Amino acid sequence: MAVCEVCSNDYDMAFEVRAAGAVHIFDSLECAAQRMAPSCDNCQCRILGHGLQADGQFFCCAHCARQRGYAQLVDHA
What we know:
This protein is of the alpha+beta class. Helix content is 18%, strand content 26%. It contains two helices and six strands; from the N terminus they run ββββαββα. A two-stranded antiparallel sheet has the order 1-2. It has a two-stranded antiparallel ribbon with strand order 3-4. This is Prokaryotic metallothionein. It comes from Streptomyces colonosanans.
């Protein structure tokens, strides 16, 4: 069994995520997202899909980007 690095649950179905040369152990996708997914620099929600990026900042949607002054960023439909 392996221990989740977010919630410390010792779980027999834990899994590894390898990113940027590091190995992370999680017991659920929720814990993996909590540790690995970026947060929106405007509303702080986790960005789990295609977000937007400008000047090193991450946004969950064009609305949040506009709130921070990035009017050129748009959502794709």
